[in-house]
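Quick note —
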Amino acid sequence: MMKKIIIGFFSLLLINTGCDQQKLEELNINPQALNEIDMNFLLTSAQLGTASGGNRGDNRYIDWRTNIGMFGHAIQQIANAGGGIAPGDKYTDNGETNAAPWDFLYNGVLQELQEIIVQTGPDGFQAGQRENTRQAARILRAYNFMRLTDYYGNIPYTEALKGNTEGIFFPKYDSQQTIYMDLLKEVSEATKAMGPANSGDGFANADLFYGGDIAKWKKFGNSLLLRMAMRISNVDAASANKYVAEAIAGGVMTEVGDRAMIQTDLGPSEWTNQNGISRAFTVGDGGQPSPLSATLVDWLKEKNDPRLMIFSGGVGGEDMDPANQKGLPNGLDAGTLQDFLGKAGANPMEEFSIINPKMLDDDEDYVFMNYSEVEFLLAEAAERGIGGASDAAGHYNKGVKAALQQWAHYDESFVVTDAQADAYVAANPYNGLESIGEQMWASKFLNWWDAWSDWRRTGFPALTPVNYQGNITGGTIPRKLRIPNGELSNNQDNFQAGATLPNEYTTRVWWDGGQ
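Predicted structure written out below.
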């Protein structure tokens, strides 16, 4: 893990977001300025930074403000009645929630990945070298740009990250449709181009996802292609058909162990190496309150779901009886909580089920994509007749079983046996798109940013919005982040000409039925 700290240090030197334009122009004069740095170092740093933005020096920032604060609450898996950062609970505005992904991804991870792609390209100082590093960078770049366009809609893409190479410091915005078409192409090409690793290229040692396992990278690439294709399936049936079929033919994830994740570590730096989600919930560190939402707890109890006591650490962290688990309704504050409970001075962390602390160790694995999602997407594709997928019920059953068993890497007490999983599947049989959507929602606990996108696209589960006094959405669940004020000030003309407008939480992005 010391290597990660070294990488993070070099990354901050190379990608100092505080540079003024003159310094950037000076760097542009010397395009070979990085020829002392191994591109594999940048890949490791970018992988680590994709988990919570850790290569920017604060690995909890994006997760605390955006993944947790907005999305985890908006899709009603956690709730808040005071304390922490929770604009998604009551549909309020938070500038840091909007700015965190934009600032951390554009000014960190994506710059590192862009540098790899440029320097291993035809005109780079490592042209024709580190081929798998290059293709992994293309896949990871697409993954992160997908996150950004899913958050904001139209964003700078074709002209982004070209200050060093082309002197473009105020990039134009591209439509989300244009961006998705290129992301699909990039992932498709890069996945196919990955080949047997050269033992001397260092890729295996640099790769935090799969340790250089090309077969698993191809499964991840095709699975990401499947996710992207289904994300646009409501608005571009032809492209969805094409790329779903390609993903299936290329080979997607087939078991829980195919998940894309990195193993975090306690040291040597808590700000770089540890799990940002965990740190955001740690008392005295992030300190975000962690009650589970009543929506999630009630759903799990209704289905007699073994994940209830995987997700829950007990009422008040003490009462571990499944029958007694109680979720906090979304949209309450100190006053309305008093009315709800019929008593004053209640502490939500004592009155309701909290997130299981066994999932929140600072060195927990950080998961980007689980195998269960692949099966749910294949089930949906089969149900809707997309891409030649078939056997919706069979894929659904595999997805549910995987979703029950994917938590054991957090703690050995989270093991769900085959017999338990099979009994649950039998008790909760396939029932069309709603059953797929609900189970995929539950499977993405902690991965709330993507669960929010699933909900926006599918409409499942059928969540009841809150209508907290003073909310800014008219009592509707947010459907987009606002592009941050810094971008509005610095790139106003391009923003006005090309952004997804109006720049409000209620505006829909292209694949969600907007422009």
